[in-house]
Write a structure and sequence with these properties.
It is built from 8 helices and 4 strands. It is of the alpha+beta class.
Amino acid sequence: MARLPRLIIPALPHYVIQRGSNRQPVFQDASDYAQFLSWLKTGAKMFKVAIHAYVLLPDQLHLLATPADATGLGQLMQWLGRYYVPYFNQKYGREGALWQGRYKTSVIDPDNFFLTCCRYLESVPVQSDLAGQALDYSWSSYAHHAGVRPDPVITDHALYWALGNTPFAREAAYAALLDTGIATAQQSALTDATLHGWALGDAQFVDELQKKSARR
């Protein structure tokens, strides 16, 4: 069966997951994470993709991003691979593919799922026992959203700004949201939609997307 083309809708947020082949490590030390983030910052600007949140894990990466056009997200991910994979292979004396196939993505209904998605991906290090709390993990955007450390990779979304009228109010509100946790059903909806390439939102959101795309 032919695989469906990716559903990419400009100006809407997309949740992106890319995993290492056979769950092998794709980041092994601090310099790997830092190098990838440097290229992510450069590539996002080049291809007009706003990165709202991210987490880099030893064997995978998650992004929450809004492309300005229909091609920018794909171009960004391809560009990152052209730079990062040769870097990683040369450094660790390996050959061949690093990623497990194509990256997975889902168009997210911002009103219902943007902040949930953002909180979910920044909570993964805690759920994976990589950190005791979100702020302890160095390779995610949580420190930016909590007001601890500005992150040049991040472009704040309007929904984050709407959390408060001042930086302190926004940061406190976001930290409080993260502390409330995320229901298992919401976590499953996010990951299932992304791994299958489905849109994630209510019926009205999906109907509106269908009018903008020839893909089912």
